[in-house]
Design goal:
Blueprint lengths: L3 H13 L4 H9 L1 H16 L9 H44 L4 H10 L7 H17 L10
């Protein structure tokens, strides 16, 4: 016994002449294949073959539509390239301006001379508070995280 899907597949191959002789003999020996073959032949006779071909203007329009769809896919690639390049340049400019210190010469000179106390009391208090919060979050008070 053959499976129905296998019979249908082999019957379609038989119609196109692609079925091997060995498979054709096996198909002819199957009783289910005869019923499916009769059903397929009835369907083929019910559908009338058409010799009509599309007109030349229809093929031209179909070809033009396919070309237009192909162009619409390629067009955004050409359009997006300069836009992405401009966005990259703007990002670079903004990042450069953002990291530039406001008064670089004055603050560097003041720190170098020692006029500005970089480690002030408020900073130390914030650091101690942060350390206490980290210790409170951790379950083990002996488990100290390195900063």
């Amino acid at each position: 016994m053959m499976k129905t899907k296998q019979i249908e597949k082999w019957l379609l191959l038989e119609q196109t002449g692609e079925l091997s002789e060995r498979k054709r003999r096996k198909l002819n020996a199957c009783p289910e294949a005869e019923a499916k073959r009769a059903e397929l032949n009835a369907l083929c006779k019910a559908v009338e073959p058409s010799d009509a071909e599309p007109s030349s203007w229809a093929t031209t329009r179909i070809h033009a539509r396919l070309q237009a769809e192909r162009r619409s896919v390629l067009l955004p690639l050409r359009v997006w390239k300069p836009i992405l390049a401009l966005a990259a340049c703007l990002t670079l400019v903004v990042m450069t301006l953002d990291f530039r210190p406001e008064s670089s010469a004055v603050s560097v000179a003041a720190v170098a001379v020692g006029e500005v106390d970089v480690w002030n009391v408020q900073f130390e208090e914030d650091l101690v508070e942060l350390e206490n919060l980290i210790l409170a979050i951790s379950g083990d008070p002996l488990d100290i995280m390195e900063m």
